[in-house]
Amino acid sequence: MKNKFKTIICVTIISLLLVGQTLSVFADTYYGVLKFRSRGEAVVHLQKELNANNFKVGTVDGIYGKKTENAVIRYQQMNGLRIDGIAGRQTQTKLFASTAANTTAARGTRYSTTDLYWLSRIINAEAEAEPYSGKVAVGNVIMNRVKSSSFPNTVKGVIFEYYKNIPQFSPVADGTIYNTPNADSIKAAKAVFAGTSIVGNSTYFFNPDKSEGTWIVNNKTLVKRIGDHVFYK
Q: What is the dihedral of CA 8, 12, 15, 17, to 10 degrees?
């Protein structure tokens, strides 16, 4: 039995060391200053990382054009970095390190602490005044999008997705996504991860008192109303 525990401990230590090495390698990745009109393999790597983090640059072509510059600006805005559209050391270090962290978390467990961090925040920002069931329902929509091929495949990616330069969720635009979530919002996020489903396969919701939701109403099927929100699939 002692040998078994020793083996488990050794494997755990080795795994942690490997994770640390992986993060270290990505954290040290720096291709020099990349900016508008830069070209080459370094730009290809940058574009791939931006796409992987759902800051879409379009075609990966090794050319630092306007789409790449705008993607860098959005990344800088969302991560508290200097906003200049230039991928310098600080921007590259954070970008490559976050990709490594997300990859490692995905290998270890189905949902990471990062997923909980963002899901609880979008629930709080969208449904702080809603009943608990409404909070869970918002979390369901986010996770349904994660599982759908029509949307990004990470919690953070779904939350920060843009369509025609407009964020899909208003808390991203007004900054309330960064507010500290209350206990019920965190509880709701954990319930969603545990499998609680209230609105089935819904991938859309809105408050009809604040938005007409014309496209959703005309193209999707109403599932139910909870509090001030209506949910569609």
A: -130
Residue 7 lies in a domain: no
CATH number of the domain within which 214 lies: 1.10.10.2520
The closest alpha carbon to 93, from 79, 104, 107, belongs to 79
pLDDT in tens, 140-193: 999 999 999 999 989 999 999 998 889 999 999 999 999 999 999 999 999 999
The CATH number for 31's domain is 1.10.101.10
d(CA 161, CA 54): 7
Residue with tokens 């602490």: 113
- What is the rounded CA–CA span in Å between residue 80 and residue 77? 6
Global pTM? 0.55
Q: Measured on CA atoms in the order 123, 126, 130, 134, is the torsion positive or negative?
A: negative
End-to-end CA distance of the chain: give it in Å, rounded.
52
Among 81, 108, 135, which residue terminates a domain?
Answer: 108
CA-wise closest residue to 182 among 114, 124, 140, 134: 124
Angle at 63 between CA 58 and CA 68, to 5 degrees: 45
- The domain tally of the chain equals 2
Cβ–Cβ < 8 Å for 142, 120: no
Alpha carbon separation from 24 to 52, 75, 93, 201 (Å, rounded): 19, 21, 10, 39
Domain membership of residue 83 as a residue range: 21-108
Write b or e for each residue in 179-217: b if 16 or more Cβ atoms lie within 10 A of its Cβ, otherwise e: eebeebbbbbbbbbbeeeebbeebbbbbeeeeeebeebe
